[in-house]
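SEQUENCE, C-ALPHA COORDINATES:
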Amino acid sequence: MDAYLLRKPRRPGIFVSAQSAVGVLRKGRLAAAGLLIATGLLSGCATHRGQSLAELPAKHSVRAERIVIHSDSPIDQKSPILTELAELRHDIMSTLNLQESKRPVIVYLFRDQQRYADYMRQKYPNLPSRRAFFVGTTSELAVYAYHGDNLANDLRHEYTHGVLHSSLKNLPLWLDEGLAEYFEPPRDVHHVNDEHVSRLTAAIQGGWEPDLQRLEQLTGVAEMQAMDYHEAWAWVYTMLQSDNGDASLLVDYIHSCKTDPSPKRLSQAVASTLNTGKTRLIDKVAALDPAGSTVVPAAFRRPGDEGRAFVE
Protein backbone atom coordinates (compact mmCIF):
# COMPACT_ATOMS: atom_id res chain seq x y z
CA MET A 1 0.00 0.00 0.00
CA ASP A 2 1.26 3.48 -0.80
CA ALA A 3 1.14 5.21 2.53
CA TYR A 4 -1.27 4.89 5.39
CA LEU A 5 -3.51 2.24 6.85
CA LEU A 6 -5.54 3.28 9.84
CA ARG A 7 -7.49 0.94 12.09
CA LYS A 8 -9.32 2.41 15.02
CA PRO A 9 -9.21 0.34 18.22
CA ARG A 10 -12.54 -1.07 19.36
CA ARG A 11 -14.18 0.23 16.18
CA PRO A 12 -14.16 -2.93 14.05
CA GLY A 13 -16.36 -1.42 11.36
CA ILE A 14 -13.78 1.16 10.28
CA PHE A 15 -10.84 0.56 7.98
CA VAL A 16 -8.88 3.25 6.18
CA SER A 17 -6.06 2.97 3.69
CA ALA A 18 -4.49 5.61 1.50
CA GLN A 19 -2.21 6.41 -1.41
CA SER A 20 0.53 9.02 -1.27
CA ALA A 21 -0.24 12.60 -2.23
CA VAL A 22 3.07 13.33 -3.93
CA GLY A 23 5.98 11.41 -5.38
CA VAL A 24 7.80 10.97 -2.11
CA LEU A 25 6.80 7.38 -1.71
CA ARG A 26 6.95 5.77 -5.16
CA LYS A 27 10.54 4.59 -5.55
CA GLY A 28 10.81 4.69 -1.80
CA ARG A 29 7.16 5.52 -1.21
CA LEU A 30 6.73 2.80 1.36
CA ALA A 31 9.39 4.18 3.65
CA ALA A 32 6.86 6.70 4.89
CA ALA A 33 4.25 4.14 5.80
CA GLY A 34 2.76 4.52 9.23
CA LEU A 35 -0.21 4.01 11.48
CA LEU A 36 -2.31 6.73 13.02
CA ILE A 37 -4.52 5.75 15.91
CA ALA A 38 -6.29 8.69 17.44
CA THR A 39 -9.58 9.38 19.12
CA GLY A 40 -11.91 11.06 16.67
CA LEU A 41 -9.78 10.21 13.67
CA LEU A 42 -12.86 9.76 11.52
CA SER A 43 -15.05 12.09 13.49
CA GLY A 44 -17.51 13.55 11.06
CA CYS A 45 -17.29 16.93 9.43
CA ALA A 46 -15.21 19.91 10.35
CA THR A 47 -15.84 23.31 8.79
CA HIS A 48 -14.03 26.58 9.19
CA ARG A 49 -16.00 29.69 10.14
CA GLY A 50 -17.75 31.04 7.08
CA GLN A 51 -16.73 28.05 4.95
CA SER A 52 -19.23 25.47 3.75
CA LEU A 53 -18.34 21.80 3.53
CA ALA A 54 -17.08 20.74 0.13
CA GLU A 55 -19.45 18.34 -1.57
CA LEU A 56 -18.84 14.84 -2.83
CA PRO A 57 -18.77 14.30 -6.60
CA ALA A 58 -22.35 13.74 -7.71
CA LYS A 59 -22.79 15.41 -11.09
CA HIS A 60 -22.16 12.22 -13.05
CA SER A 61 -22.72 8.62 -11.96
CA VAL A 62 -22.29 5.22 -13.51
CA ARG A 63 -22.96 1.74 -12.19
CA ALA A 64 -21.71 -1.70 -13.05
CA GLU A 65 -21.37 -5.00 -11.23
CA ARG A 66 -20.82 -4.09 -7.55
CA ILE A 67 -19.26 -0.77 -8.63
CA VAL A 68 -20.68 2.73 -8.36
CA ILE A 69 -18.66 5.72 -9.57
CA HIS A 70 -19.70 9.26 -8.71
CA SER A 71 -17.65 11.76 -10.70
CA ASP A 72 -17.27 15.49 -11.15
CA SER A 73 -16.39 14.91 -14.80
CA PRO A 74 -18.53 13.14 -17.40
CA ILE A 75 -18.35 9.36 -17.24
CA ASP A 76 -20.41 6.66 -18.92
CA GLN A 77 -20.71 2.89 -19.23
CA LYS A 78 -17.90 2.81 -21.80
CA SER A 79 -15.42 4.53 -19.50
CA PRO A 80 -12.02 2.76 -19.35
CA ILE A 81 -12.07 3.34 -15.58
CA LEU A 82 -15.27 1.36 -15.17
CA THR A 83 -14.08 -1.36 -17.53
CA GLU A 84 -10.75 -1.78 -15.75
CA LEU A 85 -12.28 -1.88 -12.27
CA ALA A 86 -14.85 -4.43 -13.42
CA GLU A 87 -12.05 -6.59 -14.83
CA LEU A 88 -10.03 -6.15 -11.65
CA ARG A 89 -12.96 -7.26 -9.52
CA HIS A 90 -13.38 -10.34 -11.67
CA ASP A 91 -9.66 -11.11 -11.37
CA ILE A 92 -9.72 -10.76 -7.58
CA MET A 93 -12.86 -12.83 -7.12
CA SER A 94 -11.75 -15.61 -9.48
CA THR A 95 -8.14 -15.74 -8.26
CA LEU A 96 -9.18 -15.98 -4.62
CA ASN A 97 -12.37 -17.97 -5.31
CA LEU A 98 -14.46 -15.49 -3.33
CA GLN A 99 -18.22 -15.45 -3.22
CA GLU A 100 -19.89 -12.32 -4.51
CA SER A 101 -20.84 -9.81 -1.86
CA LYS A 102 -23.94 -7.66 -2.08
CA ARG A 103 -21.93 -4.66 -0.92
CA PRO A 104 -20.73 -2.42 -3.76
CA VAL A 105 -17.56 -0.38 -3.62
CA ILE A 106 -18.35 3.30 -4.13
CA VAL A 107 -15.74 5.38 -5.97
CA TYR A 108 -15.82 9.16 -5.52
CA LEU A 109 -13.79 10.70 -8.33
CA PHE A 110 -12.94 14.38 -7.93
CA ARG A 111 -12.05 16.54 -10.92
CA ASP A 112 -8.70 17.67 -9.51
CA GLN A 113 -6.38 17.45 -6.54
CA GLN A 114 -7.50 20.73 -4.97
CA ARG A 115 -11.18 19.81 -4.78
CA TYR A 116 -10.30 16.37 -3.48
CA ALA A 117 -7.97 17.83 -0.85
CA ASP A 118 -10.57 20.40 0.24
CA TYR A 119 -13.16 17.70 0.79
CA MET A 120 -10.88 15.28 2.61
CA ARG A 121 -9.46 18.02 4.83
CA GLN A 122 -12.94 19.12 5.88
CA LYS A 123 -14.56 15.69 6.12
CA TYR A 124 -11.61 13.89 7.72
CA PRO A 125 -9.46 16.65 9.26
CA ASN A 126 -7.21 14.22 11.15
CA LEU A 127 -6.17 12.17 8.14
CA PRO A 128 -2.85 12.88 6.40
CA SER A 129 -2.64 14.37 2.93
CA ARG A 130 -2.58 11.50 0.46
CA ARG A 131 -3.51 10.89 -3.18
CA ALA A 132 -6.33 8.44 -2.53
CA PHE A 133 -8.14 6.79 0.35
CA PHE A 134 -10.19 3.70 0.96
CA VAL A 135 -12.56 4.15 3.89
CA GLY A 136 -14.51 1.10 4.92
CA THR A 137 -17.34 1.32 7.43
CA THR A 138 -20.36 -0.82 8.23
CA SER A 139 -22.45 1.45 5.99
CA GLU A 140 -20.17 2.04 3.00
CA LEU A 141 -17.01 0.87 1.27
CA ALA A 142 -15.70 4.07 -0.29
CA VAL A 143 -12.71 5.00 -2.43
CA TYR A 144 -11.80 8.68 -2.73
CA ALA A 145 -9.48 9.75 -5.57
CA TYR A 146 -8.94 12.48 -8.13
CA HIS A 147 -7.95 12.75 -11.78
CA GLY A 148 -4.17 12.84 -12.06
CA ASP A 149 -1.12 11.00 -13.36
CA ASN A 150 -1.37 8.25 -10.74
CA LEU A 151 -5.12 7.67 -10.90
CA ALA A 152 -4.97 4.20 -12.45
CA ASN A 153 -2.55 2.77 -9.87
CA ASP A 154 -4.34 4.50 -7.01
CA LEU A 155 -7.73 3.13 -8.03
CA ARG A 156 -6.48 -0.41 -8.56
CA HIS A 157 -4.81 -0.49 -5.15
CA GLU A 158 -7.61 1.08 -3.13
CA TYR A 159 -10.36 -0.69 -5.06
CA THR A 160 -8.65 -4.00 -4.26
CA HIS A 161 -8.95 -3.16 -0.57
CA GLY A 162 -12.63 -2.43 -1.15
CA VAL A 163 -13.28 -5.75 -2.89
CA LEU A 164 -11.39 -7.68 -0.21
CA HIS A 165 -13.28 -5.99 2.59
CA SER A 166 -16.61 -6.58 0.90
CA SER A 167 -16.08 -10.33 1.17
CA LEU A 168 -13.52 -10.97 3.90
CA LYS A 169 -12.84 -10.21 7.52
CA ASN A 170 -9.82 -10.71 9.75
CA LEU A 171 -7.17 -10.67 7.03
CA PRO A 172 -3.72 -10.26 8.61
CA LEU A 173 -2.22 -6.86 7.90
CA TRP A 174 0.67 -8.20 5.84
CA LEU A 175 -1.66 -10.27 3.65
CA ASP A 176 -4.16 -7.43 3.17
CA GLU A 177 -1.32 -5.25 1.91
CA GLY A 178 0.37 -8.03 -0.05
CA LEU A 179 -2.83 -8.70 -1.98
CA ALA A 180 -3.38 -5.00 -2.70
CA GLU A 181 0.19 -4.75 -4.00
CA TYR A 182 -0.31 -7.92 -6.05
CA PHE A 183 -3.41 -6.60 -7.84
CA GLU A 184 -2.17 -3.00 -8.20
CA PRO A 185 -0.04 -3.34 -11.39
CA PRO A 186 -1.70 -3.12 -14.81
CA ARG A 187 -3.17 -6.36 -16.06
CA ASP A 188 -0.62 -6.79 -18.86
CA VAL A 189 2.36 -7.03 -16.48
CA HIS A 190 0.83 -10.02 -14.69
CA HIS A 191 1.13 -8.75 -11.10
CA VAL A 192 4.82 -7.91 -11.39
CA ASN A 193 5.76 -4.72 -9.58
CA ASP A 194 9.13 -3.50 -10.83
CA GLU A 195 9.81 -1.53 -7.68
CA HIS A 196 9.33 -4.57 -5.49
CA VAL A 197 11.57 -6.65 -7.76
CA SER A 198 14.39 -4.10 -7.80
CA ARG A 199 14.29 -3.49 -4.04
CA LEU A 200 14.15 -7.20 -3.23
CA THR A 201 16.93 -7.94 -5.71
CA ALA A 202 19.18 -5.41 -4.03
CA ALA A 203 18.27 -6.77 -0.60
CA ILE A 204 19.00 -10.36 -1.61
CA GLN A 205 22.36 -9.27 -2.96
CA GLY A 206 23.05 -7.85 0.50
CA GLY A 207 22.20 -11.13 2.22
CA TRP A 208 18.55 -10.48 3.09
CA GLU A 209 16.33 -13.51 3.66
CA PRO A 210 12.52 -13.68 3.74
CA ASP A 211 10.95 -14.17 7.16
CA LEU A 212 7.22 -14.83 7.08
CA GLN A 213 6.98 -15.39 10.82
CA ARG A 214 8.43 -11.95 11.52
CA LEU A 215 6.09 -10.39 8.96
CA GLU A 216 3.09 -12.00 10.65
CA GLN A 217 3.94 -10.35 13.96
CA LEU A 218 3.30 -6.89 12.51
CA THR A 219 -0.12 -5.68 13.59
CA GLY A 220 0.08 -1.99 12.74
CA VAL A 221 1.41 -0.12 9.74
CA ALA A 222 3.54 1.99 12.06
CA GLU A 223 5.61 -1.16 12.52
CA MET A 224 5.93 -1.85 8.79
CA GLN A 225 8.93 -0.68 6.84
CA ALA A 226 9.40 -0.52 3.08
CA MET A 227 10.89 -4.01 2.93
CA ASP A 228 7.84 -5.41 4.70
CA TYR A 229 5.61 -4.28 1.82
CA HIS A 230 8.05 -5.63 -0.74
CA GLU A 231 8.19 -8.97 1.09
CA ALA A 232 4.41 -9.13 1.53
CA TRP A 233 4.00 -8.77 -2.23
CA ALA A 234 6.70 -11.39 -2.81
CA TRP A 235 5.02 -14.01 -0.61
CA VAL A 236 1.65 -13.44 -2.29
CA TYR A 237 3.19 -13.44 -5.76
CA THR A 238 5.26 -16.57 -5.10
CA MET A 239 2.32 -18.56 -3.75
CA LEU A 240 -0.36 -17.45 -6.22
CA GLN A 241 1.98 -17.96 -9.19
CA SER A 242 3.07 -21.42 -8.08
CA ASP A 243 2.14 -24.72 -9.68
CA ASN A 244 2.89 -26.90 -6.66
CA GLY A 245 -0.27 -26.37 -4.63
CA ASP A 246 0.81 -23.21 -2.82
CA ALA A 247 -1.83 -21.15 -4.61
CA SER A 248 -4.63 -23.38 -3.31
CA LEU A 249 -3.08 -23.34 0.13
CA LEU A 250 -3.06 -19.54 0.23
CA VAL A 251 -6.62 -19.31 -1.07
CA ASP A 252 -7.77 -21.80 1.56
CA TYR A 253 -6.02 -19.76 4.23
CA ILE A 254 -7.71 -16.57 3.01
CA HIS A 255 -11.08 -18.31 3.24
CA SER A 256 -10.32 -19.39 6.79
CA CYS A 257 -9.86 -15.74 7.69
CA LYS A 258 -13.45 -15.13 6.64
CA THR A 259 -14.92 -17.61 9.08
CA ASP A 260 -12.40 -17.63 11.93
CA PRO A 261 -12.22 -14.46 14.09
CA SER A 262 -8.75 -15.52 15.24
CA PRO A 263 -7.21 -17.41 12.33
CA LYS A 264 -3.90 -19.15 12.84
CA ARG A 265 -0.88 -17.76 11.09
CA LEU A 266 -0.03 -18.83 7.56
CA SER A 267 3.44 -19.90 8.70
CA GLN A 268 1.75 -22.47 10.94
CA ALA A 269 -0.25 -23.83 8.02
CA VAL A 270 2.90 -24.27 5.93
CA ALA A 271 5.30 -25.10 8.75
CA SER A 272 6.57 -28.30 7.14
CA THR A 273 7.49 -26.55 3.88
CA LEU A 274 8.31 -23.05 5.12
CA ASN A 275 12.03 -23.31 4.34
CA THR A 276 11.40 -24.49 0.79
CA GLY A 277 8.86 -21.68 0.49
CA LYS A 278 11.60 -19.19 1.29
CA THR A 279 13.76 -20.74 -1.41
CA ARG A 280 10.93 -20.51 -3.95
CA LEU A 281 10.47 -16.83 -3.09
CA ILE A 282 14.16 -16.16 -3.68
CA ASP A 283 13.99 -18.04 -6.97
CA LYS A 284 10.88 -16.14 -8.11
CA VAL A 285 12.50 -12.78 -7.46
CA ALA A 286 15.70 -13.92 -9.16
CA ALA A 287 13.73 -15.03 -12.22
CA LEU A 288 12.05 -11.61 -12.43
CA ASP A 289 15.36 -9.73 -12.22
CA PRO A 290 15.85 -8.44 -15.80
CA ALA A 291 19.61 -8.17 -15.32
CA GLY A 292 19.88 -11.73 -14.06
CA SER A 293 22.26 -10.51 -11.39
CA THR A 294 20.46 -11.60 -8.24
CA VAL A 295 22.90 -12.81 -5.59
CA VAL A 296 21.32 -15.71 -3.73
CA PRO A 297 22.18 -16.34 -0.05
CA ALA A 298 24.22 -19.52 0.35
CA ALA A 299 21.60 -20.91 2.73
CA PHE A 300 19.24 -21.18 -0.24
CA ARG A 301 21.71 -22.82 -2.63
CA ARG A 302 20.38 -25.97 -4.31
CA PRO A 303 21.88 -28.60 -6.62
CA GLY A 304 22.27 -27.18 -10.09
CA ASP A 305 22.77 -23.62 -8.86
CA GLU A 306 26.54 -23.66 -9.36
CA GLY A 307 26.36 -20.97 -12.02
CA ARG A 308 24.63 -18.44 -9.77
CA ALA A 309 26.21 -15.99 -7.38
CA PHE A 310 25.79 -16.49 -3.65
CA VAL A 311 26.26 -14.56 -0.44
CA GLU A 312 28.26 -16.58 2.07
Summary: The first strand starts at residue 5 and ends at 6.
